[in-house]
Amino acid sequence: MVYFTADLHFGHKNIIKFCNRPFDSVEDMDNMLIKNWNDVVQYEDEIYIVGDFTMENGRAIRYLPRLNGKKYIITGNHDKFLHDTEEFHTYFEWIKEYEVISRQGFKWVLFHYPIAEWSGFYKGAIHLHGHVHNREIAYSWGSAKVRAFNVGVDVNGYKPVSINEIIKRAGRIPVMERKPI
Description:
Blueprint: E1 2-5, H1 13-18, H2 26-40, E2 46-50, H3 57-63, E3 70-74, E4 92-96, E5 98-103, E6 106-111, E7 126-129, E8 148-150, E9 161-162, H4 163-170
C-alpha cells in the first residue's frame, strides 16, 4: 500500500498550541504520531512524507528507525536537519524538494506547499501538500474544487492517508477543463 503524510513536527512543542493539537506534551504527541503511523503503515508499504517531519536532527535519528515503511521525503520549510548529515539518506529512499510520481493510474505531484496549478492539472493529476496545517485554504478536503489535498496530520486524524482514500476523494472532483484564451 502507499501512504502520504505531512507536518508531523516531531518534538515541536509550539505546534501543539499553534495548531490546537490535543496533546498535553511533546512526548504525548510524538508517541501518538508514532503509534498512529505504525498502526496504518506496514513494513513493506511506501510512505511519502510531504514535508516538516521534525525541526531537530536528534529526534529524527531516534524516530526514523521506529517508523514502518519505505520512507520518501519531500523537504518542507522545517526540514533543515536533512542537510546536517548523510546519515539521513540511509532512512529515506530519496530526499527531494518536489517530485512527480505515477501510482495506480494517476500522476501525483508532491510539494510541501499548496500550489495553484501543477503538471497535469488539466489531465487529472493530483497535488498533495502540507504546510497549511489545519488552516482553511482555497482547496481543503471538504470543499475541494480541484484535485489538491492537504495530507498533513492536523486534518487527517494524526495519521497517514492511504492512496485509496485520496483516489476516492479525488473521484468526486471533475477534472478541470482548460478554457480557451
